[in-house]
Design brief:
By secondary structure, the protein is α/β, with parallel strands linked by helices. It contains 10 helices and 8 strands.
Length: 268
C-alpha cells in the first residue's frame, strides 16, 4: 500500500512503511539509500550521511542519553511513564532534560502541519472530494480557513524553538519520550481523554519543530493491542548516534519480553 504525503514539508512516508524493514539493520540500509544530500532540495542538508551500519556494531556505550521531562511527563498516563522508566533504566539514562515551551511547540507543529496539509491536498479536495474518507476530508478542509497570521506566528516560534532544542542537544545525544503517552485506544473509543484535568487527543501527533531524526518503537507490558509507543530523538548532526539507540529494540528488548513492530525512523 502506498502512503500519501502529509504536506510539502513532509513529502515522504517513513522508511519502514515504504520498504518493510523488519529490524534495525534493514532500517539503516533503507535510510542510507534514501538519505543524503539532494541538490534538487534547497532545504536538504549538504553534510555527508553518517554510516548507520557502523553504529549498529558499536552499541550505546558513550552515548549521553536523557529523558525528556516537563511537558512530556505532565500529560502522560502512568502506564506510559512506567514504560519510559523501564526503557531509560535499560539504556542507562539517568538525567532529565526539559525543552522550554514544549506545549507551545506542539501547538505550533499542529498549526503548521494542518495548514500545509490542507494546502497540499487542496486541488484534490476540489476535484475528488468524494475519494477521501469523510473524517480525513474534514481535517484537511478545516485548515484551509486558517488565517495566514496563525501560520506565520507558528513559523516564527518554530525558529525560536529550534534554537532552544539545539542548545539542549549540546548536552545530550539522545532524548527519550513517549510517542503516544497513553495506552492505545480500543476501536471505537473516543478520540480524546483527560489526563491531569486536560483533554488531549488519543492519537499521537508526529509533527515536530526541530530537525532531529527520530526512532519510534513499542514498549510496555500491556499486550499488542494496548501497548505504548516511545520515541528516541537524536542530535541532527549525528544520525549515527540515533541508530545506536535503535539497536536497543533489537538487542535489549528480547531479554525483557518487549515484543512488537520494529522501530521506525522519520525525519522532518
Amino acid at each position: 500500500m502506498r502512503s500519501r504525503p502529509c504536506s510539502a514539508r513532509r513529502p515522504s512516508p517513513t522508511p519502514r512503511r515504504s520498504t518493510g524493514a523488519r529490524d534495525a539493520a534493514g532500517l539503516v540500509a533503507a535510510f542510507a539509500a534514501m538519505a543524503g544530500p539532494d541538490p534538487r532540495d534547497p532545504a536538504c542538508s549538504t553534510q555527508p550521511q553518517a554510516r548507520g551500519s557502523d553504529a549498529l556494531t558499536r552499541g550505546i556505550d558513550g552515548l549521553r542519553i536523557a529523558v525528556a521531562g516537563g511537558h512530556f511527563a505532565r500529560l502522560a498516563a502512568d502506564e506510559a511513564l512506567a514504560a519510559v522508566a523501564r526503557v531509560a533504566a535499560a539504556l542507562g539514562a539517568r538525567h532529565e532534560v526539559s525543552l522550554p515551551e514544549a506545549h507551545r511547540a506542539r501547538a505550533a507543529a499542529q498549526v503548521i502541519t494542518a495548514a500545509e496539509a490542507g494546502a497540499y491536498h487542496l486541488e484534490s479536495l476540489r476535484t475528488r472530494a468524494a475519494d477521501f474518507d469523510p473524517m480525513t476530508r474534514d481535517r484537511l478542509l478545516a485548515p484551509t480557513l486558517l488565517p495566514a497570521t496563525a501560520y506565520v506566528r507558528a513559523q516564527r516560534f518554530r525558529a525560536w524553538y529550534r534554537a532552544r532544542a539545539a542548545e539542549a542537544f549540546r548536552e545530550v545525544d539522545v532524548l527519550l519520550a513517549p510517542t503516544t503517552p497513553w495506552p492505545a485506544p480500543a476501536i471505537g473509543a473516543p478520540w480524546t481523554t483527560r489526563i491531569g484535568g486536560t483533554e488531549v487527543m488519543t492519537r499521537g501527533h508526529s509533527g515536530r519543530l526541530h530537525p532531529a531524526p527520530v526512532v519510534h518503537w513499542p514498549a510496555g507490558d500491556l499486550g499488542a493491542d494496548r501497548g505504548t509507543r516511545h520515541t528516541a530523538s537524536g542530535r541532527p548532526v549525528d544520525r549515527g548516534a540515533l541508530n545506536e539507540a535503535a539497536l536497543f529494540r533489537v538487542s535489549g528488548s528480547r531479554a525483557r519480553g518487549w515484543w512488537g513492530s520494529p522501530p521506525t525512523l522519520s525525519e522532518t
